[in-house]
Amino acid sequence: MLSLGGFFQIGYVTTDLERSVDLYAKRFGAPNWFTFDTGALNPDRPYASFVGLAWIGAVQVELIQPKNVEQPLYADAMPKGGFGINLHHLGYLLDSEAEWDAATIGLAALNIPVASRSTVEGVVEVLYADARPVLGHYLEYVWPQADGRKFLLDNVPRNRGDIVQKSNR
């Protein structure tokens, strides 16, 4: 059995990060985002993306705009024909090497293939498991070390996500 405890993030792919952030600000009460270019942070990785992260209540939202829309990890989920935002993954936060090992063992036992795995030494381990045949999306497992926790969790702005207009109260 694979535990899905530790859910913390919903991840989307988009054709336009700036427009997606603007949409979240105007429609969902989330104007505050931490954005970055993965290519600038990790130039050795073959595929780079523009990423936006924001907390909305207790859930972190990740918006990903691949620089190459044919990037294998994101291509199937990318919106077709213009601007769009599509579900890509649910993210699970792991707190220890033991939890990381249990997740990788659990995925293997269930024959859920690992589609991508990356490491920034001493910062974070990340893997995407291809659960699309069963769940319709990827599972992302994130094990941040101290610097990774600061970058991926603590530095990400918090938004209340209030979408009720004062005139509607």
Gross CATH architecture: Roll
Relative helix content? 10-25%
Structural class of the helix and strand makeup?
A: alpha/beta
Instruction: Calculate Rg over CA atoms.
Output: 16 Å
Largest sheet: 9 strands, mixed
Instruction: Tell the overall outline.
Output: globular
Average pLDDT, rounded to a whole number, is 90
CATH topology, by name, is 2,3-Dihydroxybiphenyl 1,2-Dioxygenase, domain 1
Q: Could you walk me through the main structural features you see in this protein, from its secondary elements to its overall organization?
A:
- The chain has helices at residues 17-28, 38-41, 97-109, 132-135, 146-154, and strands at residues 7-14, 34-37, 49-56, 59-66, 85-93, 114-120, 124-130, 138-144, 158-159.
- The protein has 169 residues and is α/β, with parallel strands linked by helices.
- The protein has a single domain, classed as 2,3-Dihydroxybiphenyl 1,2-Dioxygenase, domain 1.
- Strands 1, 2, 3, 4, 5, 6, 7, 8 and 9 form a nine-stranded mixed β-sheet that branches.
- A hairpin with a 3-residue loop joins β6 (114-120) and β7 (124-130).
- The longest helix has 13 residues, at 97-109.
- The termini are far apart.
- Residues 164-169 have low confidence and may be disordered.
Keywords:
single chain; 169 residues; alpha/beta; 2,3-Dihydroxybiphenyl 1,2-Dioxygenase, domain 1; 9-stranded mixed sheet; 9 strands; disordered C terminus
